[in-house]
Amino acid sequence: MSHSITTLVSGFGANPKIYELDQIPNGSQIEGALLQLGCRPSVPAVFIGQKLIGGEKQVMNLHLQNRLAPMLMEAGAMWLWK
């Protein structure tokens, strides 16, 4: 996951789970599945509450639209937001 996305999500108090596809045995299969889901490029692929959000551009757009924090709250990834 890109450093900027990790920093952004962590800044809301969420604790993102990061999977480095090049470091796990079935990483290439997961990358292929992400491509089939339409995630281009395939990494970083961000899921919130088991829903594919997309890549860095989609996450940043949600943040700029003030929709990222509510999604994180709805998914139970954070408790409070000002």
From TrEMBL:
Where does this one sit in the cell?
A: Cytoplasm
Q: Taxonomic lineage of this organism?
A: Eukaryota, Viridiplantae, Streptophyta, Embryophyta, Tracheophyta
Put simply, this protein is called Glutaredoxin
Family note:
Belongs to the glutaredoxin family. CC-type subfamily.
The GO cellular component terms are:
cytoplasm
User: Which keywords appear in this protein's UniProt record, sorted alphabetically?
Assistant: Cytoplasm, Redox-active center
Record's CDD domains?
A: GRX_GRXh_1_2_like
User: Do you know which SUPFAM superfamilies this protein is assigned to?
Assistant: Thioredoxin-like
What InterPro entries does the record point to? Answer: GlrX-like_pln_2, Thioredoxin-like_sf
Q: Which domain of life is it from?
A: Eukaryota
